Amino acid sequence: MSDVAIRSAHGPTAGAYLSPIGLVGGLWGKRDLIRQFASRELLERHRGALLGIAWNVLSPLLTLGVYTFVFGYVLNVRWESRGGHAWEGMDPHLSFALTFFCGHALAHLFAESVSRAPMLVASRPNLVRKVVFPLEILPVSVLVAGLVTLGISIGILVVCILAFGASVPATAPLFIVPMVPLVMLALGASWMLASLGVFLRDVRNVVQVAVQVLIFMSAVFYPIERVPEAWRWVVQYNPLAVIIENGRRTLLWGEMPEWDKLAWITLLSIVVMQGGYVWFMRTKRGMADVV
Amino acid sequence: MLSEPAAYTPGDGSSATLDPALSISVRGIGKCYEIYAKPIDRLKQSLLGRLVQSEFHRKFWALRGISFDVARGEAVGIVGRNGSGKSTLLQIIAGTLAPTEGVALVRGRVAALLELGSGFNAQFTGRENAYLAGAIRGLGRRVMDGKIDDIASFADIGDFFDQPVGMYSSGMHARLAFSVASTVEPEVLILDEILAVGDASFTQKCMSRLHRLLDSGVTLLFVSHNLDSVKSLCRRGVYLHKGAPVFVGPTEQAVDRYLSQVRETTTKRAVEKIEKLAEAREVVAPVESDLRYGTGHAQVESVRMLDTHGQEREEFGYGERVVIEASVRAMIDLERVDVAFTLRDQTGVDLFGATAVREGAKPPRLRTGELAVIRFSFRNNLRPGPYGISLSISRRPDELGDGLATLDNLEGCAAFTCIADPRRKVRGKLHLPVHAECTVIRPTGVVRKTVTKGV
């Protein structure tokens, strides 16, 4: 017998959305839809461009080039040599470039998800009003597309490391450890912002600026050590900065992740993700009234 | 079958259950549009509404007190004027709009075509949208692979199927939308005015597919301003007026009620203009009918079905002449009176009709108390089955187009049965005079024989 759907004034209470297992299970059931929207996301971004999908590889390369020039050559930012012997003898500009690029790729995943979020639902009145659509998958699709882009960037990074004669450390597989809280933070924040963006049109402007500030405070362009002692806490307690730092430790420097810090951040990110999800699902029913 | 829904007790609805024989149960549904000055107020209402006493909006009830059940495999039509709440009701049942009060239970996979646009993504091609629509309803890629050709061929939009939907005309949009919705194995199909934009051949295709879906047990909720299609598809109807359910029952009656209200509004305006007519009369002679309305300034006193010898008859054979005789009493002095009849088949479709004036039997000026007897007769070329007659006495508009009024209107005031004639099969609903000709040509091109049958 088929399921019976109940349409009533009050949706399920917040409690119905509180289980992380329910959250993951629900998304897994909609993986087909998520995949279709994510692939659309990747294809659409460069549709009509002369080089097409090639831009998915070209644009991170260009970013790498521009930032290397500005920060590496013009501003002369350096990371102290932490790559052990593997990085010895590498041009400091190059090692800056790779270190920067690793952090940038991670920050970009978060920034892209979060800055797209406020318009995700607000710009699709069709999906809100005309069909029964699981709107909660929209931020997930953007994130999945972002993960593909991140994968491409990491691929480029690894190729560069090898091409310049260095080697990928044995700790590289542990790169996944800081990725887990990053994904959950991005999702939670996206859900929250996707909902807010529907009701509050100002959100998108605020988010643009906030994301910029966050990136600058996440030690993407400079080593944490360069931050004055008095202000270092801002970066040290910034989950994104810790995640980026640990991404570099595992993928570039051959160091173990900072387990204790990451454990706390992972806990926090579970709360953020679940909170964002509950918020989104609770406010979803009102969206049709204002979109 | 349409039964009275179980008593509804307000609550969160989460404990509500649905009888296995039912597909949809609407219980005390109401939708109050909260008019918000700013979108932020809507958010406040969502989050604080139940905690804080103050309200962040003005109220407008678009729908209230709607209750009905729909059995599995049943088709229910919803009629009413624009703004009567039809679309709101469908949206609530489809789940795109949350009701303010009450609860609606819906069993199984729902495919809804609500207004135009119907949830397609403009940048996606028709094909991609079809897959997407399948995925939304839980049909995976592989299942959709098996259906995609069927969707494309039914939509019949050629190469546009692989073009972004944004480039479609409204007709193509409707074709694709209907094609997808009817192919994704819905258990409940909700259609809102979707047939209005298609061309005639597509509408035909849709209707036959809808009949097929209904035969296979799909439950249908149908809104259309094409009342004939409502009547031919749906056995039960809901008539909404200003958000309230005026009538729930057989479609024919729902449609008649709706039409009567539409006509009454027009009549009321006309009557108000002319004081002479403003005084309404009591019905003097009750005539049995399903529904009677009008100003009562002229009244039908009797309706009879007769044969050519003036004998009352209930059954007519094929080819016999059928006579409808109506006696109309004028309650005041009346000018420009006309009498019309409409013949309706058992599916509720109005087949044909005529008015005395148009057929050349214009009634003269009637004086108070005079009785006018009007006879219509026609050759019975109908398919065997029961038929109903509706009569209407109206005052025609004057040269300026003013004064149109329904004086007395009787739906279903007489009936007869057309009996089957094995020698004469009727294709379709009725037979009209047809000229037939057959020509046989030799291989040499010389005409050998022509057989002609005149009208």
Describe, in plain words, how this protein is organized in 3D.
The complex is a heterodimer of chains A (291) and B (455). Chain A is mainly α and 291 residues long. Chain A has one domain. Chain A has helices at 20-29, 31-45, 55-74, 92-120, 125-129, 137-163, 176-199, 203-216, 232-236, 239-253, 259-290, and one strand at residues 4-8. The longest helix of chain A has 32 residues, at 259-290. The model of chain A has no long low-confidence stretch (mean pLDDT 86). With 455 residues, chain B is an alpha/beta fold. Chain B has two domains: 22-253, P-loop containing nucleotide triphosphate hydrolases (Rossmann fold, 3-Layer(aba) Sandwich), CATH 3.40.50; 274-418, abc- transporter (atp binding component) like domain (Coagulation Factor XIII, Chain A, domain 1). Chain B has helices at residues 39-48, 86-94, 126-136, 141-145, 148-155, 170-183, 200-215, 227-233, 251-273, and strands at residues 22-35, 58-71, 75-79, 101-107, 110-113, 188-192, 219-223, 236-241, 244-250, 291-293, 298-306, 315-316, 321-330, 337-345, 350-355, 371-379, 385-395, 405-418, 436-441, 447-453. In chain B, the strands form five sheets. In chain B, strands 5-6-7-3-8-9 form a six-stranded mixed beta sheet, sandwiched between helices. In chain B, helix 7 (200-215) links the parallel strand 6 (188-192) and strand 7 (219-223). In chain B, helix 5 packs antiparallel against helix 6. The radius of gyration of chain B is 27 Å and the shape is globular. Chain B starts with 21 loop residues before the first strand and ends with a strand. Residues 1-15 and 273-280 of chain B have low confidence and may be disordered. Classes of the chains: A mainly alpha (291), B alpha/beta (455). Strand 1 of chain A pairs antiparallel with strand 4 (101-107) of chain B, so a sheet runs across the interface.
